[in-house]
């Protein structure tokens, strides 16, 4: 799943369409349909065809088969200018991801979904066998999705479960990078900046709250914490907030001393 960028104005246009919880699921189904129909996706993104022709084709294809909201999103997408049919399909999937996250935001669950996706990404990264299986281009998509579903089962929010299943499509990039892009989109929708925090030991709620307040003062606005526990940092904390990196770990200080000894 390549989240990527949308043509200018498409996000705002789609956000103006009255969607509901089923719209994202239907868009994902449309993406799967177009994935298997190269001629159709080329026709829907053909720059030599008029906007009316492309939107008319979309209506003839799916009118009456999907909800009015889904059809409206599709027709707005085919009206946009794309470099290729594959880019258009990726753009449609991006809208499905955004609508999934917006649905979680409407119900007040976007922070939970972000936390669950982040935790799932860390779990996969820490399991080389599982990560290797998800990267294996010859391993069936359905089998990959079953692996993820068994891992999370009914323990997570439905939006988390749906997005986790989408991230293992074989035509996509690695799982961790895709999850990272989804988390960036979630933070953007919530008006937050992401702070990637690495610590040697888990932080309790009080320390997390103090850290969040300090980082929000630094960032000048809301901050979403993504915490990773890594014993190799040997105490202290490492924080990446945008282009700024704040490091106060024993490992970092030892490395600094080592470099000074080498250069002295």
Automatic annotation (TrEMBL):
GO molecular function, one term: proton-transporting ATP synthase activity, rotational mechanism
Top-rank taxon: Bacteria
A Pfam family that the UniProt record links to this protein: OSCP
Name of the protein in question: ATP synthase subunit delta
Signal peptide: none
Major location (coarse): membrane
Family classification: Belongs to the ATPase delta chain family.
InterPro entries: ATPase_OSCP/dsu (IPR000711)
Localization per Swiss-Prot or TrEMBL: Cell membrane; Membrane
Membrane topology classification: Peripheral membrane protein
GO cellular component, one term: plasma membrane
Alphabetized UniProt keyword annotations: ATP synthesis, Cell membrane, CF(1), Hydrogen ion transport, Ion transport, Membrane, Transport
Role: This protein is part of the stalk that links CF(0) to CF(1). It either transmits conformational changes from CF(0) to CF(1) or is implicated in proton conduction. F(1)F(0) ATP synthase produces ATP from ADP in the presence of a proton or sodium gradient. F-type ATPases consist of two structural domains, F(1) containing the extramembraneous catalytic core and F(0) containing the membrane proton channel, linked together by a central stalk and a peripheral stalk. During catalysis, ATP synthesis in the catalytic domain of F(1) is coupled via a rotary mechanism of the central stalk subunits to proton translocation.
């Amino acid at each position: 799943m390549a989240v990527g960028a949308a043509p200018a104005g498409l996000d705002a246009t789609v956000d103006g369409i009255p969607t509901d919880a089923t719209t994202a699921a239907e868009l994902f189904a449309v993406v799967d349909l177009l994935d298997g129909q190269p001629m159709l996706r080329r026709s829907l993104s053909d720059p030599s065809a008029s906007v009316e022709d492309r939107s008319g084709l979309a209506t003839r294809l799916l009118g009456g088969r999907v909800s009015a909201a889904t059809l409206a999103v599709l027709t707005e997408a085919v009206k946009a200018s794309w470099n290729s049919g594959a880019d258009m399909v990726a753009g449609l999937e991006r809208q499905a991801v955004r609508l999934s996250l917006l649905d979680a935001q409407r119900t007040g669950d976007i922070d939970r979904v972000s936390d669950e996706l982040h935790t799932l990404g860390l779990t996969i990264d820490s399991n080389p066998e599982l990560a290797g299986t998800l990267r294996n281009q010859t391993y069936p998509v359905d089998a990959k999705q079953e692996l993820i579903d068994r891992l999370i089962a009914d323990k997570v929010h439905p939006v988390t479960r749906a997005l986790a299943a989408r991230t293992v499509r074989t035509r996509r990039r690695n799982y961790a990078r895709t999850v990272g892009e989804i988390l960036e989109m979630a933070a953007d929708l919530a008006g937050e900046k992401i702070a990637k925090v690495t610590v040697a030991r888990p932080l309790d709620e009080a320390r997390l709250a103090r850290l969040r307040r300090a980082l929000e003062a630094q960032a000048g606005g809301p901050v979403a914490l993504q915490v990773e526990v890594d014993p190799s940092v040997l105490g202290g904390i490492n924080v990446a907030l945008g282009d700024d990196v704040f490091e106060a770990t024993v490992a970092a200080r030892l490395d600094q001393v080592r470099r000074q000894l080498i250069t002295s």
